[in-house]
């Protein structure tokens, strides 16, 4: 797999038939190692090891409904009250981050209402703070670190 623009982490890859599998520390099982999963696993470890988000607040491929359609979010990080805080869309490294990808994530977020959106392909990362009252997206230079409640 390709080196990404994210900190390296210790991972375990095994082969099962025609597939390679990587151990997912959140789901606590081996999952098929696709290019998108490679990015997702790196980003999960980045959230936990660099930005100090607790594993217990991160959900992978959570189902949500939008316009009567079932959608799945790549990563959703919750705050201490259990409300969505950070929504992350992961793409394979060869997938460009386009306006359509931004539209996809913001559409999911109309239901979840997370105040922060992140899109990454492992090489480029974009983060916005969302103001739902004004419907404005403020680009951020960095992804917010976890702020534990006092």
UniProtKB/TrEMBL annotation:
Gene3D superfamilies: 3.90.1570.30. Residues 35-144 form the Type I restriction enzyme R protein N-terminal domain. It comes from the Bacteria. InterPro entries: HSDR_N. It holds the Pfam family HSDR_N_2. This is Type I restriction enzyme R protein N terminus (HSDR_N).
């Amino acid at each position: 797999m390709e080196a990404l623009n994210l900190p390296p982490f210790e991972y375990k890859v095994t082969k099962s038939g025609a597939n390679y599998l990587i151990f997912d520390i959140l789901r606590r099982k081996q999952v098929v190692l696709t290019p998108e999963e490679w990015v997702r696993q790196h980003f999960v470890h980045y959230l936990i090891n660099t930005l100090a988000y607790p594993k217990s607040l991160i959900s992978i491929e959570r189902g949500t409904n939008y316009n009567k359609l079932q959608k799945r979010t790549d990563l959703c990080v919750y705050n201490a009250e259990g409300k969505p805080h950070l929504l992350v869309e992961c793409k394979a490294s060869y997938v460009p981050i386009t306006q359509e990808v931004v539209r996809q994530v913001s559409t999911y977020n109309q239901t979840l209402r997370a105040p922060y959106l992140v899109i990454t392909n492992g090489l480029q990362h974009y983060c916005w703070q969302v103001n739902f009252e004004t419907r404005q997206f403020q680009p951020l230079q960095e992804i917010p670190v976890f702020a534990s409640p006092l």
